[in-house]
Amino acid sequence: MEAVDSTRAFVKDVKRVIIKVGTAVVTRGDGRLALGRLGALCEQIQELNSEGYEVILVTSGAVGVGRQRLRYRRLINSSFADLQKPQMELDGKACAAVGQNGLMALYDTLFSQLDVASAQLLVTDNDFRDLDFRRQLNETVKTLASLKVIPIFNENDAVSTRKAPYEDSSGIFWDNDSLSALLALELKADLLILLSDVEGLYSGPPSDPNSELIHTYVKERHEQVITFGDKSRVGRGGMTAKVKAAVYAAHAGIPVVITSGFAADNILKVLNGKRIGTLFHRDANKWGPLGEVGSREMAVAARESSRRLQAISSQERSKILMDIADALEANEKLIIAENEADVAEAQQAGYEKSLVSRLALKPGKVSSLANAIRVLANMEEPVGRVMKRTELSEGLILEKLSSPLGVLLIIFESRPDALVQIASLAIRSGNGLLLKGGKEARRSNAILHKVITSAIPKNVGEGLIGLVTTRGEIPELLKLDDVIDLVIPRGSNKLVSQIKASTKIPVLGHADGICHVYVDKSANMGMAKQIVLDAKTDYPAACNAMETLLVHKELVQTSALNDLIMELQVKGVAIFGGPRTSSLLNIPEAHSLHHEYSSLACTFEIVDDVYAAIDHIHQHGSAHTDCIITEDSEVAEVFLNGVDSAAVFHNASTRFCDGFRFGLGAEVGISTSRIHARGPVGVEGLLTTRWIGRGSGHVVNGDKGVVYTHRDLALQD
């Protein structure tokens, strides 16, 4: 199914559309009229007409139809002796005169069956030299449009002053492709659709398997590199003529789409904004890269590359990661320079400090990322690992193997280091990857993507990791549930919630990072101060930073708690109270107990005991990471077993909830989902399973004669 394309948003403003149908579409291979295609064409025009569009048809085919009819007349009017003589080529002008009559009769019949009126308008090149003719032409078309009549244009080849219909390309127009472009300008059309016998413009002859369909034509990019194939089998122009006409009209501000007239509904798809055929648009050279490489193409390329990645050896996959680590360190100065430019621009734009903090690659970060990639490269091979072996029946062995998920779409904000972690994890797990970073990190993301993909060997392909550069492509990507297997959003609650509501693709991630630290009455307060300060101030913008401090009621107004609160304030932490704390200690009340500050601020609330702390966390938390500080092991076990979060700690900072700190090498994110993966998601979270069966002629046959053993086997047998 074709996706709606953001580059084709102009269709919503289309009122008047010109459709040009070529000879190869109008006629069959034997020269006879293609009744089925013409019927589908008329049905689409009728539907557009009923929806209020002003449709103008420019049709070819009269000469071809006339030639076929005149050949038949000559055959039945010739003697056997006449037929033995060399046959003169039929006069093209006579063919046009005969064919035009038959072609229009057919259009009239087809449109009449659909309760639509049509009108014939034959024009010649010289007509357009007359200003009075052009004024009258506009008036006639205006009147016909007001009456919902379909004007059908064709060049009047029968009386044209050209030497022959297939010769002489001089003049104001020289074929029906250029006529349609001229009419688009003259009649102020909003869109021109050129129907051909192929899907659109290809990078080479469509029959060449190496040729690719060009979705958006950019003259500066394509003009010198496209190789055209043969001209139309029956018409005057072929693709060369269509491209010339399209470039001419597009330059004048009229969008043009070249697409196949063989499909029954391509015109309707174009008007619905679907990404079919080749678009010519005056502003195409200003559009981002995805105007050329579409979302679907990028996802398909990632899938194909991931299959090639899986096909190579484990040692080769590890080498790719090693090469990426080396490439990052070799380009560290360039990476830092691009990142500093992003940070400066973000500061100038007035972004929040927490976002700028996440955006900056701190000193030593590139080396740290490279080392983390090397750790991944040296991990035990995760793909194709035999997890279970079972003898189903004698000689029939079933294996359960770890397997990549397929294609991942990761949408993240601010943090360019996330791109490196995610890319390395995708390669280690054999997955294809599409990345969409925040616009504030566009320079950092672009250079990191370039460095990483340059280290991917050609036998795998740079398409393994695609970088999405425009926000407008996200809605289209989220519709590709047939090519993208998992979406992992890393960012704000708003971002994650919007994505979950906008796609059928499974989403793995968390919407909030509202992490709690509960200080029990039996806590070692020196330890509590150390953990709380680390959880809040080590990296306040992180999703595993403490956002709410819960304190047992018996600690209120103790000197140890006062010291802890004062130390937080000395570190610059703004403290807001819950309903109980704000009234008791005269602290400004937090506007919500379910709030992620992502900065030097936190909520402070008093609770009666561990059970009240658990209830508070379940009611106001986000099931991310929560911690208890206590010397009472029984209370600790109540908390550890009672809090339903992805990670729960005893006497340890919430900041430990991290893929690298967990020994996973890196993480694509932290999941609070219940299905598939929970907590920091490393390589294992990006894998699924598949089954391999090995038999020797086994058949079910209604289970007759099959003796099932279902015997577990050693994994290494």
Automatic annotation (TrEMBL):
Residue ranges occupied by any Aldehyde dehydrogenase domain in the UniProt entry: 298-557
UniProt xrefs under InterPro entries: AceGlu_kinase-like_sf, Ald_DH/histidinol_DH, Ald_DH_C, Ald_DH_N, Aldehyde_DH_dom, Asp/Glu/Uridylate_kinase, G-glutamylP_reductase_CS, Glu/AcGlu_kinase
Catalysed reactions, semicolon-separated: L-glutamate + ATP = L-glutamyl 5-phosphate + ADP; L-glutamate 5-semialdehyde + phosphate + NADP(+) = L-glutamyl 5-phosphate + NADPH + H(+)
Pathway connected to this protein: Amino-acid biosynthesis; L-proline biosynthesis; L-glutamate 5-semialdehyde from L-glutamate: step 2/2; Amino-acid biosynthesis; L-proline biosynthesis; L-glutamate 5-semialdehyde from L-glutamate: step 1/2
Keyword Kinase: yes
PROSITE patterns: GLUTAMATE_5_KINASE, PROA
Pfam families: AA_kinase, Aldedh
A single BP term in Gene Ontology: amino acid biosynthetic process
Keywords: Amino-acid biosynthesis, ATP-binding, Kinase, Multifunctional enzyme, NADP, Nucleotide-binding, Oxidoreductase, Proline biosynthesis, Transferase
E.C. number(s) listed in UniProt: 2.7.2.11, 1.2.1.41
Entry GO CC: cytoplasm
Function: P5CS plays a key role in proline biosynthesis, leading to osmoregulation in plants.
Recorded family membership: In the C-terminal section; belongs to the gamma-glutamyl phosphate reductase family.
Protein name (record): Delta-1-pyrroline-5-carboxylate synthase
Species per Swiss-Prot/TrEMBL record: Fraxinus pennsylvanica
